[in-house]
Amino acid sequence: MSATPQNTRKIIHLDADCFYAAVEMRDHPAYIGHALAVGGQADRRGVIATCNYEARAFGVRSAMPTRHALRLCPQLIVVPPDFTRYKAASKAIFAIYRDYTDLVEPLSLDEAFLDVSNSHHHQGSATRIAREIRARVKTELKLIVSAGVAPNKFLAKIASDWDKPDGLFVIRPHEIEAFVEQLPVERLFGVGPRTAAKMHALNLNNCADLRQRELPFLREQFGKLGMQLYQLCRGIDHRSVHNNHLRKSISVETTYLNDLNGFDECLPQLKILYDELLERVEKANASQQIKKAFVKLRLTSFRVKSVEHNTSHIGFEQFHELLKTACTRHQEPIRLLGIGIRLRESDDPLQMDCLFNE
């Protein structure tokens, strides 16, 4: 497929509204109209995975401890997640997406980019394609997806969030400059709270401010991010929508509704993750490409820590030892546990010595 010029591409970003909670309300209509959250129980130090808009009106948010969410909204209904149903709903949503283009790039169970630049549907109108997709998901699956349509991924993602819930927002090529100009810097990809604070200290509050600065200044102040900022504040994003990637790693992870405390509580979960990882490695035919094995922890402070070593094969004992090392180093309660492998290219040398990294 030939490349499409930047401002003639037609990119759709689709994002299901409060996905897990929406599936629960669809499957259990009694929840409709009530504040609902999917997450762990308060008496077991659970956290909120997602919630509906009725709950958000009380200040409930994802990743919030359930105990705090219940203080904000005492009538909150908290249900445990059912990933079997969520994955089934996701599969059905993506099947609809692929009716319109092969260029579908999943970002999560409920979020994706579509490139419909060369789609023949609706005479190539991305807006009408997005409108029909939303209607089909609502009619066939009884779920809601919001959509953003724009000439690139950066703008399409911002657009999908512009008119939530249940929204469709379009940024046409001739509207890019005016639209981007008023965006606060916090909306730019790669700008977190610390970078935003530095930008505000430099009187860089929106993209119009950024455009007044030359590239050398942005590179001096923000390093590698400087070039990205220079392009994004002008609405430039050359990234393509990929339906397949050169795989660099294979991993599995689970965020637990109730924190895990130490190695002994993590060990039973490790066996579950290991079996799933083996299936993925076999399915990807990647057993001859293994370069490293790793264990990843996300702590209750939301810090992410990992331990890895070089190897050309994997076994349960390797992950057992990596997990023990990780838990010894980091004794804070654990929200997420993950394991995986990093893959080498065919010409990468094998390094058999062990190397542990935090």
What does this entry look like structurally?
The protein contains 13 helices and 12 strands. The chain folds into 4 domains: 11-15 and 85-168, Reverse transcriptase/Diguanylate cyclase domain (Alpha-Beta Plaits); 19-82, MutS, DNA mismatch repair protein, domain I (3-Layer(aba) Sandwich), CATH 3.40.1170; 175-233, Orthogonal Bundle (DNA polymerase, domain 1); 249-343, 2-Layer Sandwich (Dna Ligase, domain 1), CATH 3.30.1490.100. With 358 residues, the protein is of the alpha+beta class. Helix 4 (83-97) packs antiparallel against helix 5 and helix 12 packs across helix 13. 34% of the residues are buried. The strands form 3 sheets. A 5-stranded mixed β-sheet has the order 5-6-1-7-8. A 4-stranded antiparallel β-sheet has the order 9-12-10-11. The two termini are 42 Å apart.
Provide the descriptors you would attach to this structure in a database record.
single chain, 358 residues, alpha+beta, Alpha-Beta Plaits, MutS, DNA mismatch repair protein, domain I, DNA polymerase, domain 1, 4 domains, 5-stranded mixed β-sheet, 4-stranded antiparallel β-sheet, 13 helices, 12 strands, 21% strand, globular, disordered C terminus
